[in-house]
Specification:
Blueprint (H helix, E strand, L loop, with lengths): L2 H12 L3 H8 L3 H8 L7 H10 L4 H5 L4 H22 L2 E7 L2 E7 L2 E3 L4 E6 L3 H8 L2 E8 L4 E12 L2 H10 L2 H6 E2 L2 E2 L1 E13 L1
Antiparallel strand pairs: 1-2, 1-5, 3-4, 4-9, 5-6, 6-9, 7-8
Helix pairs in contact: 2-3
Length: 199
């Protein structure tokens, strides 16, 4: 991935337009566009400001072959997404049924800094919906900060007992709610994130 591609991707992840970024950096919108198309290159001072704004290293922006930095950036992003949603107190999960969206409030989300996980009950309708179509949307709003988060993802059932234990430690009510003498009803989904926007 080139420097320009990274700059464009990171700007979009932050939910910032080229016009807004040009105002923040006191440059023209055309300059931002030229950076993102790899036609021009930001000055050192602008690179420093961009790395702070996008919460990544200058090395990450400049080097085309640093998977380690990309993975570190992804871990940070996942942790921040989870914290943002937890600060909101709840989120809305959108599934697709017969081509129509179905939205419901959810409250339990977990991150191990590599992945996001949500949990539900195998006896609930949402489990049937996710089994039929794993494509989901998540949205949450923080009235205190007036900011939104929106996540598009696919879900994949998570079978790791370590993740299940970590979620049960974080949410003790899960043991009472989804485990009883007749069976284990808890199902944990790992999110395979396609897109994140925080506005």
């Amino acid at each position: 991935m080139t420097t320009g591609e990274k700059l464009a991707l990171l700007r979009k992840k932050k939910g910032i337009t080229q016009e807004a970024l040009s105002e923040i950096l006191k440059v023209s919108r055309q300059s931002v566009s030229r950076w993102e198309m790899d036609i021009a290159f930001p000055e050192t001072e602008k690179l420093i400001r961009l790395s702070k704004l996008y919460e990544c290293s200058i090395d990450y922006l400049l080097n085309e072959d640093i998977r380690e930095c990309e993975e570190a950036q992804a871990r940070t992003d996942v942790g921040k997404c989870c914290q943002f949603i937890r600060d909101c107190g709840y989120f809305f999960l959108a599934t697709s049924v017969g081509g129509s969206p179905r939205m419901r409030p959810f409250g339990m989300i977990y991150s191990n800094d590599r992945n996001l996980f949500i949990v539900t009950d195998k006896r609930k309708k949402v489990y049937e919906e996710l089994t039929g179509n794993p494509q989901i949307g998540i949205a949450s709003y923080n009235p205190g900060t007036r900011r939104w988060i929106r996540i598009s993802a696919r879900v994949e059932e998570e079978t790791s007992s370590a993740v299940r234990e970590e979620m049960m430690i974080m949410y003790p009510s899960l043991r009472q709610k989804y485990l009883d003498k007749t069976g284990i009803y808890i199902v944990i989904y790992r999110l395979l994130i396609d897109d994140v926007g925080i506005m």
